[in-house]
Design goal:
Length: 220
């Protein structure tokens, strides 16, 4: 099986978590794209979707799935999203596609985070994948210096602007022993919007696709 076939298998398994009549939180990325396509087939069963990016919104719209503004919603039952890395405690690195901030917002109002991944995303320790940090443009140099002081090597994602009009610094070489602490520490730097560590609010369910099938794991 190709990596894309594995992503699709994990994504389609997440359709089991879509509740009748619900508004579903939808993440961003190539794995989620398969989930959105699957959602198109059962759209009559849902009220709509809260999207985490312009790219996902466009795909949802093209399939006729109603978009719901997060400003109209207090809580979502389920949020489905991929990850760039996930560890044994269900902490993740996200933001490879630059959608980390809106993803974190939608995840924050969701009762259950269902993470869909192919098996290559599961790691013992987070940090091989460079950690994305969204920054206000005028603060980029300052934030880069602060991240270097924390032991990382930040690199500006060239030619990329987030849906929020900001920049991304991809931080290489961080040893992420305590993801929740590092998440909080980086978010304290003035000019940081948020960083791609999802540890304070990690995943609740992991659907991990391998050639043998999709493994379902529950946090705790
Ligand atoms: O900003 C992008 C998101 O955090 C994605 O969930 C993450 O990068 C995984 O993407 P993919 O499913 O394309 O591997």
């Amino acid at each position: 099986m190709t990596q894309d076939e594995l992503k699709k298998a994990a994504a389609l398994a997440a359709l089991d978590y879509v509740l009748e009549g619900a508004i579903i939180g939808v993440g961003t990325g190539s794995t989620v794209n398969h989930f959105i396509d699957g959602l198109g087939g059962i759209k009559a069963r849902i009220t709509g979707a809260v999207s985490s990016s312009e790219a996902s919104s466009a795909r949802l719209r093209a399939l006729g799935i109603p978009l719901v503004d997060l400003a109209e919603v207090d809580e979502l039952p389920v949020y489905v999203d991929g990850a760039d890395e996930i560890d044994g405690g269900f902490s993740m690195i996200k933001g490879g596609g630059g959608a980390l901030t809106r993803e974190k917002i939608v995840a924050a109002v969701s009762r259950r985070f269902v993470c869909i991944c192919d098996a290559s995303k599961q790691v013992a320790t987070l940090g091989r994948f460079p950690l994305p940090v969204e920054v206000i443009p005028m603060a980029a140099r300052h934030v880069a210096r602060e991240l270097a002081a924390l032991g990382g090597q930040p690199k500006l994602r060239e030619g990329f602007v987030t849906d929020n009009g900001n920049l991304i610094l991809d931080v290489h070489g961080l040893a992420i022993a305590e993801p929740a602490k590092l998440e909080a520490r980086i978010n304290q730097i003035v000019g940081v919007v948020t960083n791609g560590l999802f540890a304070q609010r990690g995943a609740d369910v992991l659907l991990l696709a391998a050639p043998e099938g999709v493994r379902r794991e529950q946090r705790g």
